[in-house]
Automatic annotation (TrEMBL):
CDD domains linked: PBP2_TRAP_Siap_TeaA_like
Pfam families from the UniProt entry: DctP (PF03480)
Record key words, sorted: Signal, Transport
The keyword Signal is annotated on this UniProt entry: yes
Cellular component annotations (GO), alphabetically ordered: outer membrane-bounded periplasmic space
Name under which the protein is recorded: DctP family TRAP transporter solute-binding subunit
Broad class of where this protein is predominantly found: other
Keyword check for Signal: yes
Organism for this UniProt entry: Desulfofundulus thermobenzoicus
């Protein structure tokens, strides 16, 4: 079989792999920012395995962890032009379709059930459609990541404890604004710089889901973890629409089916591993606190409507209606 690398080679025709014995094998790239030991890597490898199986080897997906294809924003821009075929990305999508920024507001949802109803229902589909239309990025699936928690170099027992805290946040306006409202000093920073930033005291804290904290070995440079559940988190399997349009309808269908299988696999993995990883981090010396999150939520929600009115008041209202 011959090999066709679709990424960045815009001249490949749509019918590159027909399924016949002498057909070409299409090789696609999938990037993400986490390590090869992370749950994302396992989900990505499952997706790659299913794509190859469901296309009878016509389409192969090569997985690039550790920001090899760039940070979240780099990969999203790569998806737009077809330089990257797939990426596991989330919050940065709000820079390409403003409606996605609504999902980045801490304490937007009261519980995981509300969150799942939003992203796996009509609201998630509406966001998917808007992103495709505006940015030429196609969301194949949403994966659960679990709620975000706060790690720091001092114990967090109340809202007052985060006053002035130099807290790393993703480069997402919604998160910057709400953490300011809660009294912290939010510092936007790419994930690849966080470990060193904590090690060198450039930042004093960061926040992420348990699997991300564990996979990034944050327990090596932070002693305290506060269970804040401030944002129910997702990540997308996003695909370049340029790549999508070069594939046959049969290959497109196979990729959609593979994404569904990988989603079920990843969601179960996250559910099984989160408690286990938290206990392992405690065994490694992390001290876990359980602050009263009601005061955190009240402070965060003071900016929700003001922010939502600027980016997607309709999506915000639909979310309120499912609560």
């Amino acid at each position: 079989m011959g090999l066709i690398m679709l990424s960045g080679c815009g001249g490949q025709s749509k019918g590159g792999a027909s399924g016949s014995a002498d057909s070409k094998t299409v090789v696609l790239k999938l990037g993400h920012i986490q390590s090869e030991n992370d749950l994302w890597q396992q989900g990505a490898l499952k997706f790659a395995e299913e794509v190859e199986k469901k296309t009878n080897g016509q389409v192969k997906v090569q997985v690039y962890p550790n920001s090899t294809l760039g940070g979240d924003r780099d990969m999203a821009e790569g998806l737009q032009v077809g330089a990257v075929d797939f990426a596991l990305i989330a919050g940065v999508l709000g820079n390409f379709e403003p409606s996605f920024q609504i999902l980045e507001l801490p304490y937007l949802f009261d519980n995981e059930e509300q969150f799942r109803k939003a992203i796996y229902g009509p609201i998630g589909q509406e966001l998917t459609d808007r992103l495709l239309k505006r940015a030429n990025i196609r969301v194949l699936a949403y994966w659960d990541r679990g709620p975000r928690q706060l790690t720091s170099n001092k114990p967090i027992n109340s809202l007052n404890d985060i006053k002035g805290l130099k807290l790393r946040v993703p480069e997402i306006p919604a998160m910057v604004e709400t953490w300011k409202a809660m009294g912290a000093n939010p510092t936007p920073m790419a994930w690849g710089e966080v470990y060193t930033g904590l090690q060198q005291n450039v930042i004093e804290a960061q926040e992420n889901p348990i699997p991300f904290i564990y996979g990034g070995r944050i327990y090596e440079v932070q002693k305290y973890l506060a269970i804040t559940n401030h944002k129910y988190e997702y990540v997308t399997i996003a695909m370049s629409n340029k790549t999508w349009e070069k594939l046959t309808p049969e290959q497109q269908k196979a990729i959609q089916e593979a994404a569904k299988v990988a989603t079920d696999y990843e969601n179960q993995l996250v559910k099984e591993q989160t408690d286990k990883q938290l206990k392992e981090m405690e065994a490694k010396g992390m001290k876990v606190t359980h602050p009263n999150i009601e005061e955190f939520a009240r402070a965060a929600r003071t900016v929700h409507k003001q922010f939502a009115d600027k980016v997607a008041p309709d999506i915000y209202q639909k979310i309120l209606e499912i609560k």
